Amino acid sequence: MSSTSSGRPADERNEDHRDDPGTGREGLSRTDRDRDRAQDRDRAQDRDRDHEGRARNARPRDGLGRPLPYGAEGVPRQPEGVVRTPDETVAEAQALLDAGRPFHAHEVFEDAWKSGPGSERILWRGLAQLAVGLTHAARGNATGGARLLRRGAGAVREWVAETGVRRPHGMDTAGLVAWARDLAELVESRGAARPVDAAEHAPRLRGEGAAPGSA
To answer: Could you give the C-alpha distances from 143 to 3, 63, 140, 155, 187, in angstroms and in order?
Structure first.
């Protein structure tokens, strides 16, 4: 049970303020308050579902995936649960990375991780972690960014070692691992005060000079 700084449980603290005019529920019985809270939860759940009825936080987000207040103009989220071919996944993720939207690229990789063959899940999961690492680095979370970049690189290396496939779907795994290592070191040296630019430091999934969609 959580507690306040005075050591009293948070639910006791809330009871102290049950008649506070600022709560909007002054004078209500416990039953009425519980009913209102349940209705609030139901409304939030109804609001935060996608077009197929799946629970999903509907708050708008900025280009780096940070939540914005309800009603703010955010960057459209990637549709969830889309089944793409590997080439489509790589091309869409690269376009998002180039646009400075690694959080959204991570969602594309996550779809591939969840819908693709089991033999490739470690690969796509590692790529998703690389995208999230870049997201954190661009947000100024140097520690989390470096950690996820190295974790993603480790997953990609693990997959290559197990399968012997070095260019899955045309991707330059050696180049991606080197990119992640170098960026992790840069992020740590700069610290939280100097976040990296996501577009400037975006990786080339198929290597330098690769044409979009090339295999």
So the answer is: 29, 21, 9, 19, 8
* Res. 57 pLDDT band, cuts 50 70 90: low
The values of phi and psi at residue 49, to 5°, are -135, 150
Residue of higher predicted confidence among 84 and 66: 84
d(CA 157, CA 172): 11
Query: What pLDDT does 210 receive?
Result: 52
| Cα 113-155-134 angle, rounded to 5 deg | 80
Burial of 136 (0-12, 13-18, 19+ CB in 10 A): buried
Residue 41's Cβ-count burial label (10 Å; 0-12, 13-18, 19+) is exposed
- Kindly indicate the confidence band of residue 122, based on its pLDDT and cuts at 50, 70 and 90: very high
E strands present in 59-194: none
pLDDT attached to residue 64:
87
100: tokens are 């400075």
Q: Is residue 65 helix, strand or coil?
A: coil
CA–CA separation, 181 and 150 (whole Å): 6
